Amino acid sequence: MNNLDFPVAEKCFQYVMDKGSTNMNYVTARMELINVTNERITGSGTYTRADLLRLENDYVIALQELGKNVATAPLIRGFSHLQAFYLHNTGKAIELLLEAIDLPNLKTQFKAECKLELADIYVFDGLVWDAALLYGQVDKDFKNDALGREAKFRNARLSYYLGEFDWAKDQLNVLKAATSQLISNDALSLSLLITDITNLDTTMEALLMYSRADLYDFQNKDSLSMITLDSILTVFPGHMLSDEVWYKKAQILKPQGRFTEAAALLAEITEKYPEDILADDAMYQLGLLYENQLNDKEKAKTIYESLLTKYPGSLFVVDARKRFRLLRVIKSIDSFS
Asked: Rounded to an integer, what distance in angstroms lies between the CA atom of residue 299 and that of residue 276?
């Protein structure tokens, strides 16, 4: 499953299930099989509504069989995510998460994780103040924990979505100052984005449009997000947000299965903005596209090698080096064969 070999993972979990419901690993295998199927379908970029409805039915049958309890709480949370972000049934998603949160003997940390998921669904549904309240609760309850830092980041991101850039920046600065650990890449990127644009663009109109497109993307409103992003390129040609716009468009196109278009946008970033903070991100994502979706291993190997040479301090260096070496070994084996 971790290596994205979903058909083999599904066969393995099915094998364990076939040993019978009295087997000690049956419940785990039953839930993991649905998790794998979920990953395979939603990550394909080519799923249909019929695929989603079959997956929904799998969740319903599994929960009817296993019941709603502490052991199946992760399954309930996964079902809720499917309902909200793919089937757009936020009412059902909220109902499921509230059920999970109220389960007796639920671990405090998992309950907080469910609250974060619920807050995300509130954002998806436009209930921003309810979301902010939940983010704040988790932040307060887990102040010195990674979960609390995640809650603070999501609250700052919500302020950014709403165009409250100064407040978002203040929260991100607190987050950076309050932990000795490395701030998450997403939080650091958002902080730099807001700081760079607000320092150089006093009107912030382009950033307002971009944050709105970002929110549309979070809400899975792809067409609205793409229209807004294209408007930025039209209204503000050559703006310093252009590479961010291309990167966001590539992120939207990839789950839709439009891999060639996404690759073209990422390549444009690496060519036109090689010194920008997004350049190594774009190059790494471009390598993954060629390796996994466009099935051009040699091109992927070249891109990883270029990343290692041009951006030795990148966060992606370790993984890029592993992938480069693996592709080189595979090529050697193929040549020998």
From this structure: 22
* Per-residue pLDDT, 179: 56
Q: Which long-range contacts (CB under 8 A, 24 or more apart) does 147-151 make?
A: 147/109, 147/112, 147/113, 147/116, 149/175, 149/178, 149/179, 149/183, 149/184, 150/116, 150/184, 151/112, 151/116
The answer to whether residue 167 sits within a structural domain is yes
What predicted TM-score, i.e. pTM, was given to this entire model?
A: 0.83
Report the largest interatomic distance among the alpha carbons of the chain, rounded to a whole angstrom.
66
Query: How many domains are contained in the chain?
Result: 1
Given a cut of 70, the residues of the chain with pLDDT beneath it are 45, 177-184, 202, 331-337
Residue 173 placed within a domain: yes
**pLDDT single digits (tens) 259-271:** 999 999 999 999 9
